[in-house]
Specification:
The complex is a heterodimer. Helix content of chain A is 43%, strand content 16%. Chain A is built from seven helices and six strands. In chain B, the strands form eight sheets. A five-stranded mixed β-sheet of chain B has the order 12-11-15-13-14, with helices on both faces. A five-stranded parallel β-sheet of chain B has the order 18-17-16-19-31. Chain B is built from 38 helices and 31 strands. The chains are: A alpha+beta, B alpha/beta. At the A-B interface, helix 2, helix 4 and helix 5 of A face loops of B.
Chain lengths: 164, 1010
């Protein structure tokens, strides 16, 4: 179930608590470890499950609200499952003419998802954008915040492979 | 500690070596495969004594992957694994470097073989980056051999911490991250702060991937100076590779005794940890960065107390930027070198990331007093594709814009600050004429707004409001007050924010308003984006750029469907001269055509002519003609502006229009400026007849001297479209010599059928389209040898390239970098004394100014000299309207009303010499204003073409679209032999199949929805 708290959505689905505790066990329990711990959760689950945030609060002996405050502050922490690495394929005119559709199809094929979806392992999310404004590099896409130009289906394979 | 032996085992100098860059960018270009391929080829060729080395980033990533061959220093660019064989066989075996892999100078286009001859490197002063690209960043021995850790030895073994601080303070080093605070002073505060536990933190963004030891050494010296035993590098890993490399470097430094306990045998202990950074731009703020390290939300804390007194976990802490800390080894190790560079207040070098519309992009290091011009045009190699520099943005998202007039500013702290910019994160973004200032400011502000941590309300809401206002302006919903509102909110955000983010975030907006206020006003007042960028305003860049707003994509679609009458109707909805423009328009639209970014812009003008040539009549029943209004309008001048104004005033305003023309023929410059071989008489006559047929009376041979006289004749309003029909003088001695004539009179006389005798040898002075027209016309009236003299080079020549090409084909000779000095008559010919020019300093537009070369005078003989260096208007003294100093008429840029409320003016007489399409646009505006003045509604929009069945973009309709590059068709033209001594039309027009194919190349930008 997804609960909406103001504009934040939190995933409350239960998770493997043992996995959370194993991660916590590798830390000392000092306050400055909060962000590194949350990062490990994010890496493990692809987002921060509610249960993990509650557990880290009691582990570090701090209010749950503070944990939520930190978790919701940083862009890179996700509170609902989304692919960790975002691939954006440009569907602008210049890209279209230079074969942008082939690029999108290739990404869809490799990842097995459509734009707006995330892979089941939450490794990748796929989006399309109207125009990245790098028409001279068409066709373009963004992988993990990096703009990549003059794309070819072969390059897509390499990039996704490289990022894995 | 490193043993002496290890130093010696490093490379002997001057040995044959192959250096492969393995910076992040080159690695993504598969430099590891290139290395393997080179190793294999070298092994296969059985070459020995060749060292294959891996280096860090050179900072010239756009040319990567790169390979350097030492000892000669050959720099190979864009290398692929397949190139390995040729590099080995040709270069390493036979000594023939592979020229196709050389770097090409963006200005000259010439290949440059050696690293040290490339301006991008040659013009830098690399102190901090000196090892980047030359050593293997994964091997500390390379760094040590290059002098690494010598400064640390000097600091720890020979200097007290106070002496180190004093040296740093004396160096004038200031924070390279943003604030620009004196590094020495900051360290002193921290050293003086009580307490045994102190920290040093480095805020890194991957700058020194090519030489991590420079940073480690700098940090260790800093720790020694302030008395810290623990340090952190907050590292925002762009790739796992660089994270690994940094950790590896720390480990090696520990093994060599440069880190850890008892460093270099002293009692100084220092441990260094890499902390994978988190968060965004705001976390660059030192207190926010400390908060993230403590596990808190990354929001800034009020200062004082400064971190130097109470920082990480309440302990004295120094936060320095990576570039600041990496400068320390040079300052301590080689103070003399440092002091020799920069200005009194801003000493040493600074590292910048040079990017945007500049030929050479990359990471550069320059003295702090280097003028921006030398960075952009020297190191950067200028603006690519012949575009003009529009602005420079310095300092990252919260930096400021500088106009081209600031090019001679040095890039030191004071100069930048007084110009409204900051050193900031040291990013220099170059913008060319195709960039929109408002859109770019919005882009920067949107990114800082997202990074606002939300602690201070001014920053949290003020930036949001500013982004919203910019959104309005860029989508046609702006109000004029918005500009002042932006300034007010921006200054409020600066005043009311705790940290550097809020204090600087409004910079891009405030500085762009300061220097480019007009561009904001154009967006607001005219819903026009001059660069054709803002999506909310620009449907298709071609139509948006057309001064008259002709709906290009729509008529191209009609051409593609063989609907030529409809296509011309679409054009006629905006201009009464579809055919004339099809023949001779300067096609500003093509320069902004988005297809041009893929392969080549659509041949819009040629397609317009094709439609006009193939159209028979306008679609029936679409045209509306207004009933008579009872008002009379006098139009002075039957050129494109006057004829257009008359057309709309008569047709859609119902006014009785009389055009007064001083010349014996109608058309203005369309008839007496543009030669017939480009625009046939019949084409022009046919379109003027359409205007006559609306009841417009044209009185030729009638010169008007006074507006009052016209009013007395009963005219209710007047339009002045006088044009610019007087040639400008060259201001040289002997200008009045018989045979020295001006271009405007010459072309006019020829057009009006006067006998013009030039003689055999003709010289044309000038470089514009008029000079080209004059030269080609001179050949047609019998000249045997025509020479154009232009004071700059071909690159600067303002004439259209296609026109220049035609002139040269027809036999015109063009001499560059020469100007006339004086003319005199000798034995039936003209002696023209000329002087050689050279290009000196650049003016504000980035064009180099021609300067005469002393003593280079020489004399040439001609029978006629035609001056085509400019033209101006003749305005009769008693006309009764105000003029500007430059001889043009005063007219409101929006309404075209002159100093009299009953009189309007437009075209060349207001703008100075411009194009037909701009005059037509002025005629349209004048018709709107005059109609309103006479009590009409001022609406001149009309629908003449039947509605289109919009199918949408191919991706939506499933229609097949050809992918890949396709080029413009060649436009057929008459053979040279058949052009001899006549004025027959040169350009023959596109054949139907080609035209349809070309029209289909259009990207249909206007149908794109978001």
């Amino acid at each position: 179930m997804v609960v909406e708290a103001k504009q934040y959505k939190i995933e409350t689905k239960s998770i493997d608590v043992g996995q959370v505790d194993r991660i916590l066990a590798s830390f000392r329990g000092t306050r400055d470890e909060l962000i590194p711990i949350l990062k490990r959760f994010q890496d493990t689950f692809g987002y921060l499950p509610e249960e993990s945030m509650l557990r880290v609060a009691s582990f570090l002996k701090m209010p749950e609200s503070v944990v939520f405050g930190v978790a919701s502050f940083y862009d890179q922490f996700k509170l609902v499952p989304t692919g960790r690495k975002v691939i954006k394929v440009c569907r602008g005119n210049a890209c279209r003419v230079r074969g942008g559709k082939k690029i999108l199809k290739e990404v869809e094929k490799i990842l097995g998802i459509k734009p707006g979806e995330s892979t089941p392992d939450l490794e990748y999310a796929l989006e399309t954008v109207a125009c990245l404004g790098s028409c001279s590099l068409a066709p373009t896409m963004v992988a993990n915040k990096e703009t990549l130009g003059r794309m070819t289906p072969e390059k897509v394979d390499d990039i996704i492979e490289h990022n894995k | 500690m490193a043993g002496k032996k290890e130093f010696d085992s490093a490379l002997p100098d001057k040995q044959r070596a192959v250096l492969i860059c393995q910076g992040t960018s080159c690695t993504s270009g598969k430099s590891d495969q290139i290395r393997t391929a080179l190793e294999q080829e070298i092994a296969r060729a059985q070459l020995s004594n060749i060292n294959i080395e891996t280096t860090g980033c050179h900072g010239f990533c756009q040319e990567g992957p790169t390979v350097i061959i030492e000892p000669e220093g050959t720099f190979y660019t864009h290398v692929k694994a397949e190139d390995a064989e040729e590099i080995v066989n040709s270069h390493l075996m036979k000594g023939n470097p592979v020229e196709r892999l050389f770097y090409h100078d963006p200005t000259t286009g010439e290949p440059v073989a050696n690293y040290s001859d490339i301006d991008f490197f040659k013009k830098q002063t690399r102190l901090v980056l000196r090892n980047c690209g030359h050593i293997n960043p994964e091997r500390i021995e390379d760094s040590i051999k290059a002098g690494g850790y010598e400064a640390l030895k000097k600091a720890i073994l020979k200097m007290s911490p106070e002496q180190v601080i004093e040296e740093v303070r004396h160096s004038g080093l200031r924070g390279r991250g943003g604030g620009g605070y004196s590094t020495g002073d900051k360290w002193q505060v921290c050293r003086n702060a009580p307490g045994r536990e102190k920290y040093i933190i480095c805020n890194d963004r991957n700058t020194l991937e090519g030489d991590p030891h420079m940073l480690i050494e700098g940090m260790t010296i800093a720790a020694y100076a302030i008395g810290a035993n623990e340090g952190f590098i907050s590292f925002r890993a762009e790739s796992p590779l660089s994270f690994k490399r940094l950790n590896n470097a720390i480990e090696q430094a520990e093994q060599h005794g440069f880190l850890g306990n008892g460093i270099l045998g002293s009692d100084f202990n220092f441990s260094l940890q890499v902390k994978e950074g988190i968060g965004d731009f705001v976390c660059g703020e030192e207190t926010a960065l400390i908060a993230t390290l403590e596990g808190e939300r990354g929001t800034p804390r009020p200062k004082p107390p400064y971190p130097a007194e109470s920082g990480l976990w309440g302990k004295p802490t120094i936060v320095n930027n990576v570039k600041t800390l990496a400068s320390i080894p040079t300052i301590i190790g080689d103070a003399a070198k440092w002091h020799a560079i920069g200005t009194e207040k801003s000493r040493g070098t600074a590292i910048f990331s040079l990017t945007g519309k500049v030929a050479n992009n990359g990471l550069i290091e320059v003295p702090l007093n280097m003028p921006l011009r030398d960075i952009i045009f020297g190191i950067g190699g200028g603006i690519p594709n012949g575009k003009k520099l529009k602005a420079v943005h310095i300092g990252g998202p919260s930096g400021g814009f500088l106009p081209p007039s600031a090019l001679d500013q040095p890039i030191d702290y004071e100069a930048l600050e007084s110009a409204g910019s900051i050193m900031g994160s040291g990013v220099i973004v170059v913008l060319d004429e195709d960039s929109c200032i408002v859109d770019t400011a919005k882009f920067f502000l949107s990114s800082t707004q997202l990074d606002s941590c939300g602690k201070c309300i001014q920053c949290r809401w003020g930036l949001k409001q500013m982004v919203d206002i910019l959104e309005d302006i860029t989508s046609g919903k702006g109000q004029l007050d918005d500009i002042n509102l932006l300034i007010e909110i921006g200054e409020g955000v600066q005043a009311g924010s705790l940290c550097g983010l809020g204090k600087t975030a409004p910079n891009p907006v405030l500085s762009s308003i300061r220097y480019f206020r007009k561009e904001y006003e154009t967006h607001i007042k005219k819903a026009h984006c001059p660069a054709a960028v803002c999506k909310g305003l620009v449907k298709a860049p071609c139509s948006h750029t057309c001064p008259a707003g002709v709906d290009v994509p729509r008529y191209l679609r009609m051409i593609a469907e063989n609907r030529y009458d409809d296509a011309v109707a679409v054009i006629r909805e905006r201009i009464p001269f579809p055919a004339v423009c099809g023949y001779i328009c300067v096609h500003l639209c093509e320069a902004k055509c988005r297809r041009g970014e893929i392969d080549e812009p659509i041949a819009i003008r040629a397609l317009k002519r094709f439609a006009a040539d193939h159209s028979k009549k306008l679609p029936k029943g679409m045209e509306k003609i207004a009933p008579p209004s009872g008002k009379k309008v006098a139009v002075v001048g039957a050129g494109p502006a006057g004829l257009t104004a008359a057309y709309y005033l008569a047709k859609l305003g119902g006014h009785a229009v009389t055009i007064f023309e001083a010349l014996p023929e109608t058309g203005g410059m369309m008839r007496v400026g543009i030669p017939r071989y480009r625009l046939p008489k019949e084409v022009l006559d046919a379109e003027i007849d359409v205007i006559r047929n609306l009841g417009v009376e044209i009185r030729t041979n009638t010169r008007i001297e006074s507006i009052d006289a016209l009013r007395e004749e009963g005219y209710d309003a007047v339009f002045l479209g006088l044009g610019a029909h007087e040639g400008s003088k060259m201001q040289i001695q002997g200008e009045d010599t018989q045979g020295v004539i001006d271009c405007v009179s010459f072309l006019r006389d020829v057009s009006l059928g006067k006998k013009v005798k030039l003689g055999d040898r003709v010289c044309v002075i000038g470089g514009g389209n008029a000079a080209i027209d004059a030269s080609r016309t001179a050949l047609r009236v019998g000249a045997k040898e025509v020479t154009i003299m232009y004071r700059r080079t071909q690159d600067e020549m303002p004439a259209a390239e296609e026109e220049i090409d035609e002139a040269v084909k027809e036999g015109v000779k063009i001499e560059y970098l020469v100007a006339p000095n004086k003319a005199s008559r000798q034995n039936g010919h003209i002696d023209l004394e000329c002087i050689r020019m050279e290009l000196g300093k650049m003016d504000t537009s980035g064009r180099k100014r021609p300067e005469p070369v002393d003593g280079s005078e020489y004399t040439r003989e001609f029978n006629a000299v035609i001056a085509a260096i400019g033209q101006k208007s003749h305005i009769p003294n008693d006309m009764g309207v105000a003029t500007n100093k430059n001889g043009t008429l005063v007219a409101d840029p929006d309404t075209l009303v002159t100093s009299r409320e009953d009189t309007f003016a437009g075209g060349d007489v207001v703008s100075g010499p411009a194009s037909v399409i701009e005059a037509i646009a002025a005629g349209r505006q004048a018709a709107i204003s005059i109609d309103k003045y006479l009590g009409g509604n001022g609406v001149i929009d009309e629908i003449l073409a039947p509605p289109e069945e919009i199918k949408g973009l191919p991706e939506d309709t499933g229609e097949e679209e050809e992918e890949g590059e396709k080029h413009r068709p060649n436009i057929p033209e008459m053979t040279l032999a058949r052009r001899q001594k006549n004025f027959k039309l040169v350009e023959l027009g596109l054949p139907e199949a080609k035209a349809i194919e070309e029209a289909k190349r259009c990207l249909k930008c206007d149908l794109e929805t978001d």
